[in-house]
Request: fold
Amino acid sequence: MASNVNPTVRRRRLGQELRRLRELKGMTAEEVAERLLVSQSKISRLENGRRSISQRDVRDLCGVYEVEDQRIVDSLMQMAKDSRQQGWWHAFGDIPYSVYIGLETDAESLRTYEPQIITGLLQTRPYAEALIQGALPETSVADIEKRVQVRIRRQERISADNNPLRLWVVLDEACLRRTVGNKQVMREQLEHVAEMSQLPHITVQVLPFDVGAHPGINGQYSILEFADASDSSVVYIEGVTSDLYLEKAQDVQKYTVMYEHLRAQALNVEQSRQCIEDVAKEYAR
Reply:
């Protein structure tokens, strides 16, 4: 469930405001970096919210941008302070995709395409355990349990009584056919997906094999949207050693159009639920 202060979102909003002030001043990131004797990459990371922003950073940038209204400076300084607080996920230690968790925690809706596995928000504990163990064979039992706990905690966003996350999932048929764990794990997992798909805020569609080539052929991605108009939508692409976050309007639009094509080519909601239930029965044999 979203906390009152989400450090990831605070960094994004603060970064957007600092970018706006820079552009109003007519300065490039390179010019600002030269004035502050820092690298251009630091300015870019501050503006895209991928780096913690100190109050000193805010003070120095406001000085360069000649912000005269002290109320604006104070507000930005407070945002910088809030952005350095820890979200609930920090209690679990070093989580490689913590930036994504912060965005997901504050998102209003999430659209995701999964070509290989059941999406994390719909995974059962046995499925998640088997999946992580298989994907990361050198991971310790303790680290597997930590990752599973984080995954289960994330699922509070779709089970919340108040303002649950609106979730739309397109699953490739391979997600249903790939046996993770064993047949019992898969049967229970697919039954869970079918049950969750009946909730009004969760939509699940299956993209069958016979569709052939399709716009999502290059792999998994998610589109996060936020209630606050000042928060731009984000396309998230998970990587092995690093993740990709796309926020430019033209990038988000391209992935959005791709997603609409996937939804159109997939089975409809009722057909998808029936397909999932049929495959679950196959695992029961």
